[in-house]
Amino acid sequence: MTADPKNTRVQSRLEKIARENDNLTVGYEVQAKIIREKTARLKALRLAKEAGAQTDEPPVKQTKRRPETRREK
Asked: Staple partner for 25: which of 18, 38, 42, 73, CB 3.0–4.6 Å?
């Protein structure tokens, strides 16, 4: 799998800025951690939804009922 060159450039530029300014390092690392956690949570939700969809039975098809006719005695 090859990395996207645009994302690599952005990442290296952010890392360079973070090295130059220690205050940005903390914010950059926190932001990266938040994104990783959110991605993991969404992936877990998607996998659970897909697993639930596979185990559910298909809905029962309802048949139309004929109206009852009145019988005379």
From this structure: 18
Q: Output the pTM of the full model.
A: 0.43
Number of residues that make up the chain? 73
State which amino acid sits at residue 23.
Answer: N
Within a domain: residue 9? yes
Contact (Cβ atoms closer than 8 angstroms) between residue 14 and residue 28: yes
Per-residue pLDDT reduced to its tens digit, 18-72: 777 766 557 778 888 899 999 999 999 999 998 888 776 666 777 777 777 777 6
Residues whose CB falls within 8 Å of the CB of residue 19, separated by 6 or more in sequence, listed in order: 25
Q: How many domains does the chain have?
A: 1
Range of the domain at 50: 5-54
